Amino acid sequence: MLEQLFGSKTRIKLLHIFFHSPDRPFYVRELARLTESQLNAVRRELSNLEKVGIIMPTVAEITDSAEQSGTGRSKYYKLDTACLLYAELKALLFKAQILYERELIELLKNKAGKLKLLLFTGCFTDAKNAETDILLVGEIKPVLVSKLVADFEKKLGKSLRYTIMSEKELNDRREIGDKFLYSIFEGKYVKVVDEINKM
């Protein structure tokens, strides 16, 4: 959707990455990996975003040699939160994310299998203690869910954690006071489908 407005999928992915972590600097090769784009395409879009003042170059110490490919002090880019367009772009990206989430919900409801429970938490609700972002319970098609989530990740430029379990496993884990489920149900979450607790 936004690529039609902005004219570049890579640019949209970069914007999602920068706005999702506004205080974090990113190395060019890391951005190429996160966006699954060619290095030259990423450099070109970074240059465009820098010219309009949305991002700015910065220098950061490299702490994870496995994650970064530079040595010593290398050039990074980070979001310029003082940019005149910051608030408007943030609102636009947030609204686009809501539309993407609705699309993902409909796809999961219609294609993931026989859903008994579909719950969104973690990055969707800012539940920092949740150990997953999506919980799917029922007779689920894992390969299809994996593809749907991967497509969503590409649109947003961020990774998601999802958990699949049967209704029996959910009930068994609830009975023993499972720590994983506790982290979900004691935090912020949104139930999209709930066939288990229906009256």
CATH 2nd-level architecture of the largest domain: 2-Layer Sandwich
Overall domain count: 2
With strands numbered from the N-terminus, the spatial order across the biggest sheet is: 6-5-4-7
Task: Specify the helix fraction band.
Answer: 40-55%
- Write down the overall mean pLDDT: 85
Largest sheet: 4 strands, mixed
Number of strands: 7
What does this structure look like?
With 199 residues, this protein is α+β, with helices and mostly antiparallel strands. The chain folds into two domains: 2-84, Winged helix-like DNA-binding domain superfamily/Winged helix DNA-binding domain (Arc Repressor Mutant, subunit A, Orthogonal Bundle); 99-194, Beta Polymerase, domain 2 (2-Layer Sandwich). The chain is built from eight helices and seven strands; from the N terminus they run H-H-E-H-H-E-E-H-E-E-H-E-H-H-E. The termini are far apart.
Map the helices and strands.
Layout: H1 2-6, H2 9-20, E1 26-27, H3 28-35, H4 39-51, E2 55-61, E3 73-79, H5 86-111, E4 113-120, E5 134-140, H6 142-156, E6 162-165, H7 167-175, H8 179-185, E7 190-194
Parallel strand pairs: 5-6
Antiparallel strand pairs: 1-3, 2-3, 4-5, 4-7
Helix pairs in contact: 3-4, 5-6
